[in-house]
Amino acid sequence: MKILVTGGAGYIGSHMVARLGELGHDVVIYDNLSTGHDWAILHGNLVVGDLADRALLKTVLEAGNFDAVMHFAAFIEVNESVRDPLKYYRNNYANALNLIESCRDAGVKRLIFSSTAAVYGIPDGGGKVVEGTPLSPINPYGESKAMVEKTLRDFSAASDFRYVSLRYFNVAGADEQSRIGQAYDNATHLITLALRTALGKRDELNIFGTDYNTQDGTCIRDYIHVRDLIEAHVLALNHLADGGGSRIFNCGYGHGYSVREVVAKVKKITGVDFRVVETGRREGDPPALTADSTRIREELGWKPAHDDLGFIIKTAWKWEKLYWKKRESGEI
Ligand code: UDP
User: What is the set of domains in the chain, with CATH numbers?
Assistant: First the structure.
């Protein structure tokens, strides 16, 4: 197939591009390189462009004759979205709308969208959510993604356009060969920050809140290896290519780990007893958030291969060490 991947130079997008290459697909990457890196693109042709640039989008989409678009490009910092909501509504919503309209104009009828568990906000009960749980985002980041989902739902209902929205839980880990991985300086995610602390790039790791109503007082999350997430996209792509209808799927393993469990595992794997500081709760954190992933397992036959926190952390650790070494030597 011929596929346009927006954000293909970023963390998850670059893993997608590499996998599409392995599968023999023809790929064009559309990325403004604001947070992505050209060295992370292991396959396909890069167009450096912004989704705000309607003229360029039109040219690329009309020339490409794409079978599908995979839309990864977005901002991802929850705190920043609270401080600067318009930045998120502009890039994550308005630019996604540009893309959807441009798909319509160019006759591209299949799209896979990178959504997030943040659309659920703070769920009731034990934190395990099914796709039918009402959307209730509590920050502009989650809201911007929910708005795209609603737009896709309505446009798909009104036309022959079809989409799959994948709601990512806590994506982590890196390529097994350490070619690509998280390479974002402003990372806010737990595993990356813990590893950077182990590496001495940060003085300490904060644990945000130890008084939650969970087994050890810290928050529970569903950490999923990036490679399993990518296989979910491959299945979604094949589903649409086979004529399947528009669908929304949770992407997580269905069970979680507490912040303390993750920290202990990172210390064990890295062998570094880095400094950990227990601080107050971070605003907007649900106590527990895990995926009920029955739907994607049953409908698409998704069978995760790396449901193992140790494997997730090991691949991320190997990558993190190599990444900083390459940076410091000027290789990247
Ligand atoms: N967390 C933490 N210290 C950090 C970063 C994150 O204690 O430096 C906690 C955070 O409060 C949440 C969990 O780790 O309970 C996962 O947070 P992350 O930002 O990785 O992902 P999120 O679940 O917010 O998407």
Answer: 2-173+223-251 (3.40.50.720), 190-221+254-289+308-329 (3.90.25.10)
